[in-house]
Amino acid sequence: MFAVKLIKQHNEPNIWLISYLLIAVLAIFLLISLTTGAGYISVGQSLAYLLGQPDAIADNKLASVMETLRMPRTIAAIIIGGCLGVAGTLMQTVTRNPLAEPGLLGVNAGAALGVVIGISFLAAETGYAYLVWAILGALVGSGIILWVANHGSAVVTPVKLVLAGIAISATFHGITSFLLINSQATYDQYRYWVLGSLAGVDLKSISQVSPFLVIGLIASLILTRPLASLMLGDDVAKSLGHKPALTRFIVTITVTLLAGGSVALAGPISFLGLIAPFLARAITGPALFHQLILSALFGALVVLIADICARLIVQPFEASVGVILAIIGAPLLIGLTHSSRFSQLILSKTGS
Amino acid sequence: MTDSMIKLALTKHHADRALAVRLNNGRYSLVFNRPVILLSAGLIVLLILSVLGSLSLGATILNFQTVFDALLGQSTQSQQLLVNEFRLPRVVAGLIAGFALAIAGSLIQNVVRNRLATPDVLGINEGAALLMLIVLVSSNVGLMGPWWVAPVGAFVSGILLLIIAKGLGTQGYRLILVGLALTYLVRSISELMLAHINSLHASATYSWSVGNLNGRGYEVAEPIAIGLAVLLPLVLIISRQLKIFQLGEELASTLGVNIFQTQLTAICLAILFAGLAVGIGGPIGFVAIVAPVIISKILGSTHLAMINTGLLGGILVIVADTLGRFLVAPLEIPVGVLTSILGGPFLLWVLLSNKNT
Question: How far apart are CA A108 and CA A93, in angstroms?
Fold first, then answer.
């Protein structure tokens, strides 16, 4: 069985070639993202600025649109997409559940609640304070969901886990609304943020969040081996010298850092953790390392495209990335239930 | 109707003592189980208490004596206005919405044979709310729009759900998953639309879109109550067939139950009930799952007590709405927010306690 897997990996498409292709496509959409959107700047002007033509750089209006609006949200889209893609893959692996995803499982709602608690009770005002509270809230959410996933004797099917996520999200959302009911202004601000929009992101908040996300990404690379062994079962993992309980704990922290950091930056974004690993798995085999790399790239690409759509679909307004991703993600979820291989996975009792 | 036509018989039924009223030599019969009747009595007492509580609590707190006086028209004009014009219609509306939601939940759960299959999880409530929103945005009707839009919306999303999921499935999980996806899809479309209407309209609509009884009274409760009264006998007939259905499909069909027809009728009724409830109070969450689960915990899963489930649903909505008006008075918390806060842990408990939900 193991030998078969090794041979099969050899026959798989060249992972690096695909990665380079994805990076090339990503670069194209990066250019599109920098040259489209609000601000009445033409594609030619934006290109002139990007190519460093002196009169374009001297143009104050052009420079401010590029530097304060388009560049931060483009960078944020790529970072968030990559991190949520990785977080989704980690959660799916550790829960052995192809539907596991920070947005569906209540981690995002926990982060949102954390931020609102911070604002309401402890006068959190800075982006950094938001970040800390988002990560604390996400930790509570992911802690509960992993506890549910490994809950004693009860059979937790993938669908049940998603329903548990809905239960957790509903309670968190309810408490959040409860706290926000006193202030219409905060409520409006919160709603704007909670829909998941990249419009308000600036370079300062990106640099504040980055350390947490980088730690999360490094941790997920280190986790590849112990997690891969965990997929073979706890006993095998133990005999290979890994500690399953410790692995699960570190995965929880890692997912929390990645999802909580992303939520702090752009609000809760659902479904990405489902879409990106799904696309990655469609190309790679079971090798976790490859899945992580491709999930990150696909995640970045999907969020970037969704953000461009959000800017263009309902001009002069903006739709939120979260809404666009839900519109892409829901049909995918329906499609998954109809594909026989996945529906076996999703509907089976063990989920593995 | 002669004595010979009406036979009262005490029969053993599921080891409980049951009272069976047989009309016309047993062609029609009503079976009353003692625990079911006892539970009904208890629930009615609870209902009266929660109605009284709801009439007395709020931004202004009245004592029971004042409430009674106001109901009888013997108190000050402002108290009468508060009790009879503001609180009572809202309590009636909440009662009807809760009743309808709980019965809708019980019907779908028993057809799909899955505790988690309820109109809110399956996206039927959200579909009803979306159609309401579309009518509101595309026309200049009042703030809430005509109530009958919601049942139509529920029906459209219910049919869509059944078509996409290709029927009910054996355990209902495919149905639930497709329902979840539809819920997300519909909710994002609603959010997209909310982003484009003016902000005053948007915040009122938003508060309705999470489940809210604020400003709802007789004008919506009346037509919906009439609709429920017409459909309720059908529910009682269907629930007896569903009870036989619980014994297994083969046994049910040998006993003369048309399975497809029963399932279809029950689903249609459930969708209608859910739609009517949304027409009153918006998509109030979790009542449809909580009420049937509590009733079956009390009575045991072999009973299928629709009226009791409905009564409990009404109580839950009234209590949540009262808490919402009372806790942070003079501000209000929408009833849907409170049912979500309390319903979430309940759903988690159901998921983890039942090995075969």
Answer: 19
Residue carrying the six token digits 């709801």: B54
Please state whether the peptide bond connecting residue B151 to the residue before it is cis, i.e. omega within 30 degrees of 0. Answer: no
A340 touches chain B (CB under 8 A): no
Reported ipTM exceeds the 0.95 cut: no
Tell me which residues of chain A, numbers 117 to 156, contact chain B at a CB-CB cutoff of 8 Å: 148, 151, 153-156
Inspect the interface and report whether the beta carbons of A337 and B174 lie closer than 8 Å.
yes
Q: Collapsing DSSP states into helix, strand and coil, what is residue B11?
A: strand
Question: Under an 8 A CB cutoff, do B357 and A323 touch?
Answer: no
Distance CA A177, CA B84 (A): 30
Q: DSSP state, B57?
A: -
As a whole number of angstroms, the distance between CA B43 and CA B24 comes to 32
For residue B8, the cross-strand partners are: B21
- B185, B206, B348: residue with CB nearest A164: B348
Reported pTM: 0.83
CB interface of B with A, residues 102-141, below 8 Å:
116, 121
Closest Cβ opposite residue A347 in set B173, B343, B355: B173
Q: How far is CA A41 from CA A30, A38, A52, A318, B144, in A?
A: 16, 7, 16, 17, 41
Chain B residues near residue A336 by CB distance under 8 angstroms: 177
pLDDT, tens digit only, all 352 positions of chain A: 444 444 455 555 678 888 899 999 999 998 888 887 666 667 777 777 777 777 777 777 777 777 777 888 899 999 999 999 999 999 988 888 888 888 888 898 899 899 888 877 776 666 677 888 899 999 999 888 888 877 755 566 777 888 888 899 989 988 888 887 766 666 666 766 666 677 778 888 889 899 999 999 999 999 988 888 887 777 788 888 888 788 888 988 999 999 999 988 888 888 898 889 988 888 887 788 889 999 999 999 999 999 988 888 776 677 788 888 888 888 888 887 777 766 666 655 443 3
Cβ separation of B347 and A153 shorter than 8 Å? no
Chain B residues within 8 A of A320 when measuring between CB atoms: 191, 195
- The verdict on a CB contact (< 8 Å) between B352 and A153 is no
Distance of CA B104 to the CA centre of its chain: 6
Inter-chain touch A346–B177, beta carbons under 8 Å: yes
